[in-house]
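Subject: for your reference before the review

Hello V.,

The reviewers asked for a structural picture of the protein, and I figured it would be easier to keep everything in one thread rather than splitting it across files. Below is the amino acid sequence we used in the manuscript, unchanged from the supplementary table.
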Amino acid sequence: MSVEVRVPALPESVADAVIAGWHKQAGDSVSQDETLVDLETDKVILEVPAISNGVIREIRFKVGDTVTADQVIAVIDDTVAVATEQPARSLAEPVQEAMPQSVQAERPETEVSTELPISPSARKLMAENNLKVSDINGSGKGGRILKEDVLEYLDSKSKPNKKQLSEPARTEQKVAKTPLFESTGTEARIEKRVPMTRLRARVAERLLEAQHNAAILTTFNEVNMKPVMELRARYKERFEKEYGVKLGFMSFFVKAAVEALKKFPAVNASIDGNDIVYHGYYDIGIAVSGPNGLVVPILRNVEDLTLAQIEQAIISYAASANDNSLSIEDITGGTFTISNGGVFGSMLSTPILNPPQSGILGMHTIKERPMVVNGEIVVLPMMYLALSYDHRIIDGREAVQFLVTIKDMLEEPSRMLLGV
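And here is what came back from the structure prediction:
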C-alpha cells in the first residue's frame, strides 16, 4: 500500500517551511526512521524521517518549494521489502529476496539496527560512537531511542570520544566558512547574489522588531575573572572526571544571572500589551552561532540545575545547533539571554534584545589589564560586561545594580553558594 509522508505540525509562530534538501529520490529504498528530507523554517532545520520501510514512489516538491503543515510531500510504497544493508535501487529493478539469517549474523555488532525505533539524530550519534542498540535504554514513546538517551549513555561511560561531542558544543566553537569567491587570477570586479535563508531573514526581522518596539539602552561594567579562573584551575580535572564535561565560564555566568534576576525581577519580565508579565522561573537562552545563523536554545528552570547540568545542557544544545537538529521546542520561550561575543574576540558590544525578553547579557573576551587594587597596580584578567535592557519596564538604577550583582557574584563565586 502507499504511505503518505506529511509535513509535521508546526507551532503557531511558524507559518510554513521550505524544502531544504532531499536525502532520497524517487525510486530509492528507505528504512523506517531514516531521514528523508530536511525542512527549513524561520527558526530551525527539521528532519523528517520515513514512517515505514519501502521504496519512494513519489516526491511532490522540489528543493526550494514552500510547504505547510500536514501537506503530503512524498509517498512510500511499503509493499516492497527493503533489506537494511542493500543500496537504494530503482523501481524498475527486480526486488531481491531478503538476506539469509546466516549472512545477517555476520554483520558487525556495532551496526545500528533500523528495525527498532530510533530518532535520526540518535542514530547518527550511535553510528559515530560505534554503539549497539542493546547499549541504550530508549525513553521515548514505545521505547524509541532519543538523542538524549545516547548522550546520557556516553556521559555515564565517560568514553574518550566524549570530547568529540563537547568541543563543538561549547560557545567557544568556530563555524567553518567556505570562501564566497574562488580566486580567478583576474582583476575582474565580481559579485554574487544569494537569497537569504529563512533563518537569516527571521533573525533580521526580529532584530528590527526589537529596535522598533523596545526602548533599548545598554549599561556596561567590568569584572575581574581571576577568582573564577582560579576556581576552575583548582577543580577542573576532578570536575571533568566526575561529570564527563569541562567546567566552563558559561555555567558561572548563568548561575550569577539567575541570582541577579531573583533580586531584580523586572529584568526577567516581559511586556504583553499593556501588562507586565513577571516570570517566577528562570529560562535562560544561550546564543549559539550555527552553520545557518544565530540560534538561541533555552536552558529551562536553571535555578534547579547544577553547574555540571548546565555545562552538559549547553554541550547538547550547541552540538545540535552544529548539525541542525535543534527542535522548535529547544528554541521557544526564554526569559533572559546570554551572548558570548568574546569567543570571537569581541572586546565590547551592545547586544540586541531577544523579544519579548527585556534583558540580554553580553560577555566579551578576557584581557589582562593593569588595575589599581588597594593603591597598587596589578595585572588582572578583565572582562567587559554589557546589559541591554528595555527601558519601558526596567529603570536605569535597576539595570546598573543588576550588572553590579553579576560582577559581585563572579568576583566572589562563594556568594552564589551562600545566596548573598
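For the response letter, the relevant points are probably these. Residues 83-115, 158-176 have pLDDT under 50 and may be disordered. The domain at 111-157 is CATH 4.10.320.10 (Dihydrolipoamide Transferase).

Happy to draft the paragraph if you're swamped.

O.
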